[in-house]
Amino acid sequence: MKTPSPTAALLLLLAPSLTAAHYLFPHFIINDTVTKEFEHVREHDNGFQPSWDDGAILASPDLRCNKGAENHMGAPTPAQVVAGRDVVGFQTNLGTKIYHPGPVTASAPPPPRPVSSYADSEDPFPFPPPSGNVAEYDGSGDWFKVYQLGTKDPWDGTDQGWLTRDRSQFTFRLPAEIPKGQYLMRIEQMAVHPPYKAKQFFMQCAHVEVDSQYNGSPPGPTIKLPGGYSKNDPAIQLDSWAKPKYAPMPKPDKMWPNEDNFNKIL
Questions:
Q1: Which residues, other chains included, contact 20 with Cβ-Cβ below 8 Å and sequence gap of 6+?
Q2: Which residues contact 215 (CB under 8 A, 6 or more apart)?
Q3: What is the mean pLDDT of residues 113-139?
Q4: Phi–psi pair at 217, nearest 5 degrees
Q5: Quick one: pLDDT at residue 230?
Q6: Across residues 218-244, what is the average pLDDT?
Q7: What is the mean pLDDT of residues 145-165?
Q8: Is 230 in contact with 121 (CB distance < 8 Å)?
Q9: pLDDT level of residue 115 (50, 70, 90 thresholds)
Q10: Taken in order 162, 206, 256, 128, is the CA torsion positive or negative?
Q11: Right CATH number for 22-114+127-242 from 1.10.287.130, 2.60.120.620, 2.70.50.70, 3.30.200.20?
Q12: Which of 78, 89, 85 is nearest to 33 (CA)?
């Protein structure tokens, strides 16, 4: 990855609290390039704060790209990537290392459909938007998972056993089986350290335009956000204070198109 500028390195040294607490994911990564803050990532209005509110976030549209992200839909430019070739991902603010234990996942909904796909539609207000423009898309479609990073195997139940701990970059090779189009790509870290099975969600979305030759089955399985998570899900029921030996991953239960991007660190 590119070396941070002297200014960024100095700020990192002066901000130890950010290296041990809350974080953003404002940088999109394409191969060896860490792009500028919010160049391809949709900003939100939640600052460094996690989302939970006794589980209310699970029923909120803010679960998609974070609180107030709809206010910044038109700002990012789509990152140009090639399915099956490029390594993509996210970096935290100032290279902040994630301290809280918990899984990191990356997911995406199918791209907004072009105008031609609505030629015979009787619905005067179809959604996703007919423009095919991700800048007009709120992520209310079906989301499929392409990457996840959990715990070591075997795991001793400690915070140090999470593969996400002390990392600032999360990257994976974009599967070849991604159809061509513009996408929201969402990163989520679900921090599991609070007591009584409470959680903390950190999430952010990037705008991505995928070049692809794939024309096979649509990606799946999928979930809605909100709607795909509940407080009864095994991943959310995980009690990190009980020294568990296994950590279920957030839904969907399977990744697309296979498990190649499970616990893989590039």
A1: 97, 99
A2: 179
A3: 55
A4: -60, 145
A5: 97
A6: 95
A7: 96
A8: no
A9: very low
A10: positive
A11: 2.70.50.70
A12: 89
The answer to whether residues 28 and 79 touch, using CB atoms and an 8 Å cutoff, is yes
pTM (two decimals): 0.86
Give the DSSP letter of residue 262: B
Residue spans per domain, the chain: 22-114+127-242
- pLDDT above 90 (res 69): yes
Residue bearing tokens 């996942």:
105
Separation of alpha carbons 104 and 121, rounded Å: 38
Nearest to 113 by CA among 123, 98, 103, 100: 123
% helix, strand, coil for the chain, step of 5: 15, 25, 60
112 pLDDT band, cuts 50/70/90, is: low
Which residue intervals of the chain are DSSP H helices?
6-14, 62-65, 234-237
Is residue 220 over pLDDT 60? yes
Burial of 123 (0-12, 13-18, 19+ CB in 10 A): exposed
